[in-house]
Task: structure prediction
Amino acid sequence: MDRAVIFGASRGLGAELAKQACAAGYPVLGWGRKEKALAEQRERDPLFEYRVADFSKSFGQDEAIRYLLGSEPFSKVFLVVGGGPYGLFQERDWPSHEWALQVSFIFQARVIHALLAARRLEQLILVGSSVAESAADPQAASYCAAKHALRGLYASVRAETPDWDLRLFSPGYMDTEMLPKNAAVRSKGVYSPSVVAGELWTWSLTADYGGHRVYPPHPT
Ligand SMILES: NC(=O)c1ccc[n+]([C@@H]2O[C@H](COP(=O)([O-])OP(=O)(O)OC[C@H]3O[C@@H](n4cnc5c(N)ncnc54)[C@H](OP(=O)(O)O)[C@@H]3O)[C@@H](O)[C@H]2O)c1
Result:
């Protein structure tokens, strides 16, 4: 049976994606740290189930990977989770930077490695960032570094394993909790996570095998 797993499903883009997948009749297993938000989503939608783990910690990552490898294959794996501290690089403490690298790159790399090693080639979609993966992102250096790394990993693994539907979806700025309320880019216009999730979900159902989709183009 077709079903999807979404890492980072309790709010923002991942929560909207879960809603759209369930509306399309896909059972979804959503992961996050905040049980309350996940439980509320479950109340609203019986096709939504959830598990709680912290992917900034190696034991949280281990738990998710063990779960993936021990389950019937999911037709779609979405690695939506990501984030990082805001501020000048030297003014944020090192654990905050380490957190950004763990949740925005190391966890994703470990999932890819584990699925490949187990020859589990279900569709896997990484979520990058149209800005942070391809240009400087002042005040978000460790996040930007992690997103650059994610894009490099995606491109390299794609070249090594062209028979795997490994994709990268790179959104522009969205109106979610992740974007600080006072972020300057908000004045240029940010996108609704629900619209972006609709685009991501529809794209996952199309035949753009192994593709990289940048959506939407960032307003100039
Ligand atoms: N917002 C933007 O402007 C923007 C722009 C470009 C790209 N992106 C990318 O789009 C993706 C989604 O962003 P978003 O704006 O929807 O972010 P968000 O609102 O901050 O949501 C992040 C999701 O990841 C989960 N999460 C965060 N840290 C976690 C951890 N340590 N362990 C487990 N789960 C964790 C959160 O749930 P819990 O809090 O329950 O753990 C939440 O479900 C990210 O990869 C982000 O980098 C965002």
User: Anything to note?
Assistant: The first strand starts at residue 4 and ends at 7. Residues 94-117 form the longest helix (24 residues). Helices lie at 12-23, 35-44, 58-70, 94-117, 141-160, 193-204.
